[in-house]
Design goal:
It is built from 15 helices and 23 strands. It has helices spanning 40-57, 62-78, 80-91, 95-116, 152-166, 180-191, 210-216, 229-240, 264-276, 293-308, 328-343, 377-380, 396-404, 419-428, 461-468, and strands at 2-4, 6-8, 11-13, 20-25, 30-36, 124-127, 131-139, 142-146, 169-173, 199-201, 222-226, 245-249, 255-258, 288-292, 347-350, 367-370, 387-393, 408-409, 411-415, 433-436, 451-452, 455-456, 469-477. Strand 2 (6-8) and strand 3 (11-13) form a beta hairpin. The longest helix has 22 residues, at 95-116. It is globular, with a radius of gyration of 23 Å. The chain binds nicotinamide-adenine-dinucleotide and (2Z,4E)-2-hydroxy-6-oxohexa-2,4-dienoic acid. Residues 146-150, 155, 173, 175-176, 205-207, 211-212, 215, 225-228, 231, 234-235, 249-252, 283, 382, 384, 410, 450, 455 line the site of nicotinamide-adenine-dinucleotide (NAD).
Length: 478
């Protein structure tokens, strides 16, 4: 049984009132440990520690911080097996995915920002003969980092690495459903020589709990959240009273647009991934598939055939492609969406139910639904599960309108061999991240984030530093 503790000012501690909550493995339904349940008291202690540590960490050089970030990356790589097992036990995702995606990318997040910070520059503007302006980049202070359960260490380190690289200190509030790798990260940071108080972890819940205590805290300067759009709204409200800087990476309902002139094999192979990888619990998953009419029947038939071959099962089995959803509550939610899609006229071509032989865990079959339109709930709301819809379209204008008919604007995928059309459609889609003939291909220097209700701000490369640091202009009269 794992006992997951907070990490405050360099110490692993229980909650002052001794409260804990259970940690459940969603693939077995079994309790695998207890987690310290933090409240305002632990958040206060962690913020105070982070503020004290900022006095020295904020004054270290980029080169010193870079060395520590690389050590953290080394240690994540050295602990890959253990971290992957913890991640899979918490989430239910295939161990093969934790090993190939979650943990390697977590290490790379530190390596990338450890390198990037050494090459940072600022701007200079000369007013010829009058004055010289130059900008200085300075850390902001204490950041609250709030992460989701779907890619726990991956998305947490995507915030922690630039935060530390920029010279800020942090208080992390991991998702309550996936606490283990955050505490393990704290151990790694300590071993890498990160000074006490620079990184703190407080476990617990969101509303009226550790999460809201962090977002309301007067001594926290920044909040970076990845989570649901409704959480983003609550966090924005809470952060407004003390005017904190906000970065919000929220939900998506991403279109996957397939023109008849695409490379069909490539489109099918990648669509299997963009639909069902991580049980569809990736904010970038292309859950609304639009196929140009001449290809529609073939595409639907081939996609159903390929998806039917995906192995749903024990996350520890190397043959498994689709593991368990995050928990019983989420499983009910996903199933509810499918039931209502059928009530609205949707036809299930594959899946749509819990696999009978896996009744103990939160498993759901890869599901493909047709005969829906943009008035149906299933095409409008984020399901965050292994469920996609497919609709035919006739013209480019029509599909652009369909793709944009959503309150979200995170990602989109376009499949075509027509170069002009690819550029044209990419320019028209209202989303922050557009992939053409690929999906989830990431260059960490590029801006990453959502339009509309998918978020505020961008992460990645210099954009992360824009958030985690302040620029001040110095004007010198000549
Ligand atoms: N845009 C992106 O990059 C991205 C990436 C991954 C996930 N997501 C989104 O995240 C969602 C799934 O993750 P989730 O269910 O963990 O999200 P969630 O919003 O339920 O929780 C995210 C985090 O916020 C905390 N939280 C919840 N309410 C809070 C409050 N009132 N104050 C402070 N903290 C609060 C939670 O405890 C958790 O740590 C999906 O909507 C998905 O699209 C977005
Ligand atoms: O579930 C959401 C996935 C987000 C991915 C990233 O933030 C990234 O690749 O940097």
């Amino acid at each position: 049984m794992e006992k997951v503790l907070h990490f405050i000012d360099g110490q692993f501690v229980e909650s002052a009132d001794g409260r804990t909550f259970d940690n459940i493995n969603p693939a077995t339904g079994e309790k695998i440990g207890t987690v310290a349940e933090g409240s305002k008291r632990e958040i206060d202690q962690a913020v105070a520690a982070a503020r004290r540590a900022f006095k020295t960490w904020g004054k270290t050089s980029a080169a010193e911080r870079s060395v520590i970030l690389h050590k953290i990356a080394d240690l994540i790589e050295a602990n890959l097996e253990e971290l992957a097992l913890l991640e899979t036990a918490d989430t239910g995702k295939p161990l093969s995915l934790s090993k190939s995606l979650d943990i390697p990318r977590s290490a790379y997040n530190f390596r990338f920002f450890g390198d990037f910070v050494k090459g940072m520059s600022t701007e200079t503007f000369e007013m010829e003969g009058v004055a010289l302006n130059y900008a200085l980049r300075r850390p902001v202070g204490v950041a609250g980092l709030i992460s989701p359960w779907n890619l726990p260490l991956f998305l947490l380190t995507w915030k922690v690495a630039p935060c530390l690289a920029a010279g800020d200190t942090c208080v992390i509030k991991p998702a309550e459903l996936t606490p283990m790798t955050a505490t393990k990260l704290a151990e790694i940071c300590k071993e890498a020589g990160l000074p006490d108080g620079v990184l703190n972890v407080v476990h617990g819940f969101g509303p009226d709990a550790a999460g809201s205590a962090l977002t309301e805290h007067p001594d926290v300067d920044l909040i970076s959240l990845t989570g649901e759009t409704s959480t983003g709204k609550a966090v924005m409200k809470a952060a407004s009273s003390t005017l904190k800087g906000l970065s919000l990476e929220l939900g998506g309902k991403n279109p996957n647009i397939i023109f008849a002139d695409c490379d069909l094999e490539d489109a099918l192979e990648t669509t299997i991934r963009s639909s069902f990888v991580n049980q569809g619990e990736v904010c970038l998953c292309g859950s609304r598939i639009y196929v140009e009419r001449p290809l529609y029947d073939t595409f639907v038939e081939r996609l159903v055939d390929k998806a039917s071959k995906l192995v749903v099962g024990d996350p520890l089995d190397p043959k498994t492609n689709v593991g368990a959803l995050i928990g019983a509550e989420h499983l009910d939610r996903v199933e509810g969406f499918v039931t209502r899609a059928v009530q609205e006229g949707g036809r299930i071509l594959l899946g749509g139910k819990r696999p009978e032989q896996l009744a103990k865990g939160a498993f759901f079959e890869p599901t493909i639904i047709v005969d829906v339109d943009s008035s149906c709930e299933i095409t409008r709301q984020e399901v965050f599960g292994p469920v996609v819809t497919i609709q035919p379209f006739d013209t480019e204008e029509e599909v652009v309108a369909l793709a944009n008919d959503t309150s979200y604007g995170l990602g989109a995928t376009i499949w075509t061999s027509n170069l002009k059309r690819a550029h044209r459609v990419a320019g028209e889609i209202e989303a922050g991240i557009i992939w053409v003939n690929t999906w989830f291909l990431r260059d960490l220097r590029t801006p990453f984030g959502g339009m509309k209700q998918s978020g505020i701000g961008r992460e990645g490369g210099v954009h992360s530093f824009e958030f985690f640091s302040e620029l001040k202009n110095v004007c010198i009269k000549l």
